[in-house]
Amino acid sequence: AAGVIQSPRHLIKEKRETATLKCYPIPRHDTVYWYQQGPGQDPQFLISFYEKMQSDKGSIPDRFSAQQFSDYHSELNMSSLELGDSALYFCASSLGGWSSYEQYFGPGTRLTVT
Amino acid sequence: GNSVTQMEGPVTLSEEAFLTINCTYTATGYPSLFWYVQYPGEGLQLLLKATKADDKGSNKGFEATYRKETTSFHLEKGSVQVSDSAVYFCALFSGSARQLTFGSGTQLTVLP
Predict the structure, then answer these.
(1) Chain B residues with CB inside 8 Å of A42's CB?
(2) Peptide bond connecting B31 to the previous residue in cis, omega within 30 degrees of 0
(3) What is the pLDDT of residues A41-71, one digit of tens each?
(4) For residue B64, what pLDDT is reported?
(5) What pLDDT band is residue A99 in, cutting at 50, 70 and 90?
(6) CB-based contact (8 Å) between A105 and chain B?
(7) Contact of B76 with B19, CB cutoff 8 Å
(8) Which end of chain A, N or C, is less surrounded by CB atoms within 10 Å?
(9) Who among B42, B51, B104 is closest to A101 (CB)?
(10) How do beta strands A10-13 and A109-113 pair?
């Protein structure tokens, strides 16, 4: 069965650079969530989209933005990167918006800021 | 707000030992509860879920029962294997918050 695809899997950037992470949800899933997991930490919710509209925001810095496109894939744009942005970034998808609680996670993108 | 409190780790067991990882939660309304597993270097995999009180989720020998009266969702397995070594996260999804809230994770190591 098709799973959530994230690219790239690994990314190394320098401070003050920008990064774009991509997420391709499971086919026909209309809801995308982004989470950030710091080293040894639990995943923290960043932002979500339902039917291409931003729905909820969590602890997402103002330097980050995201959107969901017409084909339901999503991109997380990160600017002015800081050392503390080094983390594993997960995308998850679900079907049916807020009536669907079951989220399927991608393998994550490991971002390292040097 | 919503929160999940997990038993602190790490937990080290011998193969075939009994496993319990405690999880309690605080939430408004009636959340759905989950256990996710994360193997080294990999993403989060849904292990089991329960959507209402007294539901029992089970998968791969793991079980957890949604206890509303004690706001708990403890993970159990009767006989662990080396391949169960991973980090286990308890999580809840509340319709009001519309996001997963995770516990801090419990590192399990099973020795042969």
Answers:
(1) 89, 102-105
(2) no
(3) 889 999 999 888 888 888 899 999 999 999 9
(4) 98
(5) low
(6) yes
(7) yes
(8) N
(9) B51
(10) parallel
A108 touches chain B (CB under 8 A): yes
Are the C-beta atoms of B43 and A105 separated by less than 8 Å?
Answer: yes
DSSP string computed for A13-82: E-TT--EEEEEEPSTT--EEEEEEE-TT---EEEEEEETTEEEEE-S--TTEEEEE-TTS-EEEEE-S--
Q: Which chain A residues contact residue B45 at CB under 8 A?
A: 105
Buried b (16+ CB within 10 A) or exposed e, B62-100: bbbbbbeeebbbbbebeebeeebbbbbbbbbbbeebbbb
pLDDT at residue A89 in the model: 96
